[in-house]
Amino acid sequence: MNVKDTNRWMEETLQHINNQIHHPYLHDSIGAPDFDENRLSLLLFPYQIRGNYSVQDKSYVSTAMLIQTALDTHEKVSDDQTGSLRIRQLTVLAGDFYSGLYYRTLAQMPDIELIRRIAHAIQEINEHKIDITSNMPALIDSVIFSLTKIESAIITELFKHNGFDEYVILAEDLLVLHRLIKEEIQYSSSGTSILFSHLERTLPKTTSLFREKQLMDLYFDLVLHKKEQIFRRLDELNIPVNSLKGPIFSVLHSSIERPKIYAEEG
Amino acid sequence: MKLKMLYSFLKTDIEEIEKELNLAIDSETSLLKDASLHLLQAGGKRIRPVFVLLAAKTGEYDIHVIKNVAVALELIHMASLVHDDVIDNSELRRGRTTIKAEWDNQVAMYTGDYMFARALDYMTVIEQPVAHQILSQAIVELCIGEIAQIEDKYRFDQSLRDYLRRIKRKTALLIAVSCQLGAIAGKAPEEVHTRLFRFGYYVGMAYQITDDILDFTSTEAELGKPAGGDLLQGNVTLPVLYALKNPRLAERITLVHENMPKDEMARLIGDILTTDAISKSSDLSQRYLKKALNELDQLPTSKTKKSLRDIALFIGKRKY
What we know:
The complex is a heterodimer. By secondary structure, chain A is mainly α. Chain A is 76% helix and 0% strand. Chain A has two domains: 1-110, no CATH class; 135-265, no CATH class. Chain A contains twelve helices and no strands. The model of chain A is unreliable at 262-266 (pLDDT under 50). By secondary structure, chain B is mainly α. Chain B has one domain (3-316): Orthogonal Bundle (Farnesyl Diphosphate Synthase). Chain B is 72% helix and 1% strand. Chain B has helices at residues 11-24, 30-40, 47-56, 63-87, 99-102, 105-123, 129-151, 160-185, 190-217, 220-223, 229-232, 238-243, 247-253, 262-273, 277-297, 303-317, and strands at residues 92-93, 96-97. In chain B, a hairpin with a 2-residue loop joins strand 1 (92-93) and strand 2 (96-97). The model of chain B has no long low-confidence stretch (mean pLDDT 93). The chains are: A mainly alpha, B mainly alpha.
């Protein structure tokens, strides 16, 4: 795998997406969307292994990025009434606009089978989003399953569609691992996180310090278990960890350790 | 006469569409199903499915195929309404609480995205790429139109062309596409489906201009919101553009803002109604209607053609 090629493919793909979504008024008002480079590097991974990346491949990868951007943009629409109404209005419309663009790209290719697959994936994602935000599943495994689907359904559908089935489980595990890490960052900074509120519900009532330690123990068990699964999968695929390049894999190169304070107390 | 009477011969098929719409939102996630059903049960004219069915009659009409397009178009419309209520911060729609009011913005966003995905799922039964190219382009244009509407708020120096382009994207395109896709799904010849697109486009333009006139001429009870609400929100519609030609009124109109006192706004609307703004707007609506009927004249005589003509005329004359 050539790092230079991958970087060039990433840049070209981002440029391709930016050309499609360019809307001066929208982006002057709410800013251009941030593209998730972890996701992009994962999308490019099968092409890295294969060693080539065609114009059509770029359209597929751009489409997957556009869909995710549409969904992520709608995640920013909150119930906060203190923010600007105009910004909220434009955020809703930006998400709708990106959705229209991905449909247009697939229609122009034309790839109706992928339109169908992606439509199913988006239905599934929104069902899981509602499940974990409103229905509060009792089992943590159900929460992890929902988070996995929310994070990976688009990419895994594209992988299956393009014959990259062998990377589906790896993609699911990598994306949910990143989501778990994001949840911890959010919990540390704001005290709120979907994952941590579910984890908290599984704990018995104890003193707050001990409770916090138990909570973090549960979290690190989940993260380390997921990392082990990824290493096992890479082994099965015969891919050496040190050969993996791209932002999505950086989490595998660094060790995730329990914070000292918790380790000592434990 | 009621709108439904104009296409009563489609009654069975319209019922089939209604059944299919219920199936389309039958999610295993109960909250998602409840939210979608909440909007579906609020009703609506189902004008887009009606146009799809009628247009399909110009070709090989098979309800099992055509219904997928009709359901897709209605779901896209419904998804846009759910998101519109978040955009407009609306509490009520068709006399019922909106999804965002009944639940919250997040549920409304997820429900809208879900409905849009369901729509595309239904559309994929139609394997002709051109159908998807036309629909996807219309959806992109629709979003651009809605963004432009926000950009143009309280911009009183805009031109007639700005207004017409905006309402084309906002309203006319989806009606035009409903007609065209119905004909494409029925495998009608290109000449027929492009003509039906133009028919739908002209009807849609007349429909939106009429809507903009009614915002001034209807009562609060008829509208379900105060008259002149569009202007208060900064939407520069056709009657406003014509009223702006009057220098004395123009000075007052350009001072409109969202917190303008109710009585001051009522006086301004009263004064706009004394000008020729409404009659000139109505003239333009009628011109679009005439163009729509001209397009129909080129199609062979049929029951469908008569229904399309009657619906177009109904839209042009509607009072609320």
